[in-house]
Amino acid sequence: MTSWLRKYTNFILHRKLLIALLIVSISISRTVADNTCASPLISTCEECLRRGPDCGWCIQEDFLDGAHVSQRCDSASSLVRKGCREEFIESHRVKVEVDATISSTQVAPRRISAQLGPGSAASFVVEVQQLDRYPVDLYYLVDVSASMKDNLERLDNVGLALSHQMREHTSDFRVGFGSFVDKPVTPYISVHPTKIINPCSEFDQQCRPAHGFIHVLPITKNMTEFTRVVQQQTISGNMDTPEAGFDAMLQAIVCQKDIGWRAEAKHLLLVMTDQPSHLALDSKLAGIVVPHDGRCHLEDNTYTQTTNMEHPTMGQLADALLRNSIYSILAVDIAQYKWYEDLLDLLPGAFLGRLLPKATNLKDLVVDAYKKLLSEVELEVTVDHRHAHRFWVNVTTICPPGSRPTGSNKCSNVKSMQKVFFNITVGMTSCPSKGLEDDDVAISVQPVGFNESVAVTIKQACSCQCSQKGGCLDDADDTIAGTACNDISENSGQVSTDVCRPSEGSGKICNGRGTCVCGECVCDRSNLGTIYGKFCEMDDFSCPYEEGLLCGGHGQCTLGECVCQIGWTGESCGCLVSTETCQLSDGLLCSGRGRCVCGRCMCDDPQYSGEFCEKCPTCYTACQAHWMCVDCHLTNGLGRGTAEQCNKTCAPVVGYVDDITELTNALGKQCLYPSADRCHYRFHIGVEPGSPQLQISRQPECLSSQRYFVTFLSVFLLTVVLGLGILAVLRILLRRRERPQPDNQNQPLDTGKKDLSYAPTTNEKTVTYRRDHNVERSVEMHVQVPKMPLDDMWQ
Ligand SMILES: *[C@@H]1O[C@H](CO)[C@@H](O)[C@H](O)[C@H]1NC(C)=O
Ligand SMILES: *[C@@H]1O[C@H](CO)[C@@H](O)[C@H](O)[C@H]1NC(C)=O
Ligand SMILES: *[C@@H]1O[C@H](CO)[C@@H](O)[C@H](O)[C@H]1NC(C)=O
Ligand SMILES: *[C@@H]1O[C@H](CO)[C@@H](O)[C@H](O)[C@H]1NC(C)=O
Ligand SMILES: *[C@@H]1O[C@H](CO)[C@@H](O)[C@H](O)[C@H]1NC(C)=O
């Protein structure tokens, strides 16, 4: 006994060891496979999701009971394999939503929102179309330092010619004018008192004082005005070679209102100069150290901060150009071409041209620039600078056929009305530092020079939904981290589960058929079917069926009762509300003899039937209905009806006629009444008012008793003879079947017919009786049961 016990315990121990080994090997293989997500160091949902785009966190309460909390973090597929239901997995699925409600003429879509988690990326396509003709605003920004004297003198003529030439490309061309020299501080200008007022005094010429930027003429249609203004311009002077070109440009760009840029127009900023421009940090030499703020500082059309702020950086300038959708045309002296060429790549939508002496080619230069700028479609994508380091953007361009892509995000030679597509992929590398998780990241997708752009908003999925809503995962201690919200919030009162109750605060949470997770019902699973609905109130199994369909296929099963669609009614929504199907063409509902229930007639009188209660096989015919009254009269109230009845209802409607055939052609119906005296009385049911309704013939048609007997006898004899004949035929047929067939006794199959006389006459059975478990001593018995001879009953 003891040895047996030991053997058994050994076996059990062995089995346990085996299972343990198996579990270890499985978990090792799993951690190897999904090691990006699973880690024993993870204790919160946030930490888990930060490990990668594929990681998920299981918030199901009873998930892997008792296991370490880090087990809740794994790839979504592994979690499902481990028994976590999909509704309980927090993960960051990439979502892209396109808002198509904003109308646009050139750029579509105008607004996109996307959700990204660390390591994930989203793609979307932006479509840009250049229109046929645009209104055009051209702002002349002219360097009026002494060396530009020749150019300036020619400008009024050129301006007029240019406006003529631009009519080919636009029907609405407007111009404006502004001038610049340099920051009016030493060492850029001479501060000798005479030279401040007239910088050209040493050349015996009249000049005006140097200035940073003066806005002279807002954008206007009036070319006469433009010519007048340009003619009034006088030159100025300064000391050093570079001028404050970029400083003035920035003001001309950002002072939208003062300059008068129109929203619907293409904006051209023409900068004419024969010198390079100062760059951002140059002004430190003059003791100006405040960085430029990128804003407009015009007062009385004069740039006021020129002596206080540094020159803008190239980045600020590029950003301003892009945001205000301005193309810049740099018409520079040939000697400075190289200097500007190096900067060209930094300025989006910029065109650089060589200005010949006396600005002779200015007109062609501007027209060429306009044509070139409008034949290029270029996209600039800018990520909010606070988050830019955590995002990457990749643009692929699909240019229209016929134009070659010249860069990754630019198409050239695009004709008007052609479409350019940009496939933009935005990726997020990591989550922001703490406190910035809730910030949405703005990405601007701006086609250069267009007045429309795409606003992309990226939602950073770096925290868990559940903790966002109620903080329950954050507040939970390690052992219960991951429990569904309602349990924790019921204790801490942070998230009300009332939102999961069907009638605001009362009723069972999710109708008792689900769990409240982060303010939303997650419905239970049932073997019977699916439970769904905002409060798990609907399902597909607990309601009556009609013709094999739940709620007849015409309703929703809500809390065990069918909620029928409009037009349907009944417990299982199998009934049409309309009674159309109960009406014949006469408009009477069920022929006036019933109610319409569920689109079918229910007849009040059980004698009636048919789809519209129109049939009555057992009803009296019209003739039979009047038999009683006829009888009353013939028997004087002693026949079928009681005397009282006869007097009351029959007396006034009955009359007699001598010759019924007279009434044959009258309206109504001819009938027969068979009376008890073996006579037929003809009567007529009339419909004419005035005359009695029933007219009974005085002459009955009676069978004489002799004729009656003969008829009866012949029918009787005919019946007897026919019956005897049938019996005789049956007898002969049966006899033939009973006759034995001795020839075929040994080959019953030859006959091809089944002959029952060859069946065995006894049944034999062998029965073995067993007295105990000893097999050798059992007793076998043969029992013979005689069968009843097959032909017995025929004899
Ligand atoms: C255009 O400007 C001139 C001179 O500045 C002025 O006399 C004329 O009235 C203006 N025309 C219009 C249409 O404003
Ligand atoms: C952009 O320009 C187009 C074409 O001129 C115009 O139809 C549209 O209204 C402008 N959009 C905005 C926002 O100004
Ligand atoms: C951008 O797309 C190109 C072409 O598909 C690809 O070669 C490149 O690796 C992508 N860059 C990033 C950062 O995904
Ligand atoms: C856009 O680019 C992404 C990433 O390269 C690619 O997966 C996607 O299919 C592209 N979409 C279209 C419409 O070309
Ligand atoms: C029926 O009417 C006849 C004649 O008007 C009358 O004699 C008889 O009493 C009435 N019978 C009954 C039961 O009212």
UniProtKB/TrEMBL annotation:
It is a single-pass type I membrane protein. Residues 623-704 form the Integrin beta subunit tail domain. PROSITE patterns: I_EGF_1, I_EGF_2. Residues 36-85 form the PSI domain. Residues 44-464 form the Integrin beta subunit VWA domain. Residues 1-33 form the signal peptide. It holds the Pfam family EGF_Teneurin. The keyword Magnesium applies. The chain crosses the membrane at residues 708-734. GO terms for biological process: cell adhesion mediated by integrin; cell migration; cell-cell adhesion; integrin-mediated signaling pathway. It is found in: Cell membrane. Gene3D superfamilies: Laminin, ligand-binding face of the semaphorins, domain 2, ntegrin, alpha v. Chain A, domain 3, von Willebrand factor, type A domain. It comes from the Eukaryota. InterPro entries: EGF_extracell (IPR013111), EGF_integrin_2 (IPR057073), Integrin_beta_N (IPR033760), Integrin_bsu (IPR015812), Integrin_bsu_tail (IPR012896), Integrin_bsu_tail_dom_sf (IPR036349), Integrin_bsu_VWA (IPR002369), Integrin_dom_sf (IPR032695). Keywords: Calcium, Cell adhesion, Cell membrane, Disulfide bond, EGF-like domain, Glycoprotein, Integrin, Magnesium, Membrane, Metal-binding, Repeat, Signal, Transmembrane, Transmembrane helix. Residues 740-773 are annotated as: Disordered. One of its GO terms (molecular function) is integrin binding. Disulfide bonds join C45-C55, C48-C84, C58-C73, C200-C207, C255-C296, C399-C411, C431-C671, C462-C466, C516-C521, C518-C551, C523-C536, C557-C562, C564-C573, C575-C582, C596-C601, C598-C646, C603-C613, C623-C632, C629-C702, C650-C679. One of its GO terms (cellular component) is focal adhesion. Belongs to the integrin beta chain family. This is Integrin beta.
